[in-house]
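User: Fold this; C-alpha cells only.

Assistant: Input:
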Amino acid sequence: MAEELTVCFKPSPGDCSGDVLRVHTECGDFPVQLHAQPAKLQKLPRALHFGRVPLGEMARRTLRLDAGGPRDGVCSDFAFTTRLLPLSAALACNFTVQPLQGHLPADLTITFSPTQPATAVTDLEVRLCMLC
C-alpha cells in the first residue's frame, strides 16, 4: 500500500524551518524529518525581449540559475524544474526552454521561433527543490 502526502511550506523571509512528521501505520510509527529553507536565487530579469524575429527564424536567450555558494554551513544544493506557461494557446509552440530540469547552477536556454506574425508572450516557471 502506498499513500502520497503533500506538505506545503511558506517560509518567513530568510528563515529555515524544520519539524517532524510522525506517520502511524499498522507496521509501526515512523518519524519523517522535515527541513526547509528559502532558496536565495539570484535576481532574475522581469522580462526577456527577443526583438523582431522573422517567421521561420529563431532567437535565443540564456538565463543563469544559481543559488550561490554555501552560506554558513547551510545547504546550497538545489534541483530545479522549469515550465513555460503561455498566455495564449495559439502561440504556445513559439517558445521552448532547455533544460527542463537539472541541478543548480545551470544555464537555461529560451528559444523563440514565431509561427505567425503576432506578438507572443509566455511566463517561465522555475521550481526549486533543496537536496540536502
